[in-house]
TrEMBL record:
Pfam families from the UniProt entry: MatE
CDD domains: MATE_NorM_like (cd13131)
Species annotation: Stappia taiwanensis
Principal cellular location given in the protein's record: membrane
GO cellular component: plasma membrane
Protein name: Multidrug-efflux transporter
Amino acid sequence: MSWSTPASPGGLSLSDLWRSDIRPTLMLGLPIAGAQVAQMAINTTDVLMIGWLGATELAAAVLAFNLFILIWLFGMGVLQAVIPLAATARGDRRPRDVRRAVRMGIWFAILYTIPSWCVLWFTEDIMLVLGQDREVSALAGDYMQVMMFSILPSLLTMALRNFITVMEKAQVVLWATVAAALMNAGIDYLLIFGHFGFPRLELVGAGIASVATASLTVVVLVIYTLRQRQLRRYAILGRIWRSDWPKMLEILRLGWPVAVTLLVEVALFSGASVMMGWIGTLPLAAHGIAAQLASITFMVPLGLGQAGMIRVGLAAGHRDRAAVGRAGWVALFGAMLFMFCGALVFWSFPEMLVRLFLDLDNPQADEVMAIGITFLLVAAVFQLFDGVQVVGGCVLRGLSDTKVPMVLAILGYWGVGMGLAYGLAFPGGFGGVGIWWGLAAGLASVSVALMWRFAWRERLGLV
C-alpha cells in the first residue's frame, strides 16, 4: 500500500503490537539516522582534516562551526514544524495541506537565509567581542565568509527531506547524503592541502567543499521529488511563487519553540566552546574533537526521534491513542539501547578515537590527546541522557507539543547545564572537565522532564 500507519490494537496480542511498531520505526528511522550520520561525516571530515593543519586552525574551525550551527539550527528548527503538520495531514488524508506545509517550508528557508548571511559575515568581529584569540578569530572569519553560502542549500535540503521522510522515502535522503559526504571528503583533500596541483587553501578550501556538497544534495533531492511518481502527485514545486501566509504563520507558531529548543541545546555546547577558549587553545581543540565524536552518536537517536515524530503524527491523524504511545516508546527505548552501546565504545577506546583527529607529529598533539580523552570519558556518561532528550522532544513535537518542552529545555540546558559548567570550571577550579560535567547534568535534567511529559500525555491533554 502507498503508506503505513501505526498498528491498530484490534485482534493482536501485546507482543505482536510492539513488534508491529518496532519494524516500521526501524525501517523509517535507520535511513534517517544513516543520513544524519552521513551529514555528520561531512562535518567530521572537515574537523579531521583541519586538525591535521594544527591546533590553531582547528580551534578557529570549532568557533566558526559553532556559530554557523547556531544560525542553521534555528532555521532547521522552524522547518521541523513541517514534519508534524505534513504527517498529521497525511494521516488524516488531506494531501493539499501536506503540499501547503512543504511549500511554505521552502519559502521560509529562502527568507531566513538573508538575515543569516548578514550575521555570519561578521564572524571575526563576533569572536573578538567574545574574548577569543585574535589570530584564531581572523581564521574563523575567513572560513565563515565562504562556508556561510552553504546555509541556503542546506535549509532547502531540510525542507525537502522533511517531505520525503514523511512520505516514508528516507532511503533516497540517505544515499544523497552519502554521495555528498564522499564528494566533501574529496574536495577537502584537494583544496585544504593543495594535492594534485590544486591550490592549498586550508580553511577556505574546507568552506568551498561545504558549499559544493550542500548544493549537490539539494539538486539531487529536487530531481527526485519531481520524478518519483508518488511524490510528484503532490506537486510541491508547482506555482512555488504563490504565497500562503496562513500556513506560513502556522509553521512559525509551531516551529519557533522547536527552533528555540534546538538553539538553547546547541548554545549550551557553543557556550561551552567559548568558555573553553577562555581556558586555552589546546583545551578548545580537544573540546572540538570530543564534541564531534559525541555528535556522531547523537545522529542515530535523532534519526529514531524523527521517525517517532512522523509515526506519532500519523497516529494522531488517525486518532489512535494506543498507537501514539507505542510509536513514542519504541523510539525512546531504541535510542537508549544505541546510546548505551555508544557509551561503551567511548569508555573502552577513547585514545584510539581522539587519535583519528590529530597529526601525531605535531608537538601539541600529545597534550590535546590527553585532554580530549578526559572529555570523552565524561561524554560516555551522558550518552543515554543525550539520546533520551532528543527523542523525547521529537515525539512530543509529533503531538504538536512544542512550547512546554521549550521551557523545560531552557531551564535544563541553561539553568542547570550552563550554570554548573561555569561554576565547576572556574569558581570550582575543575577547568575543562568541569564544563563537560555541567553539560552532562543539563542533558540529564531535560531527558527526565521530557520522558515524564510523554508518559503523562493523556492526563495533560496532549492526545
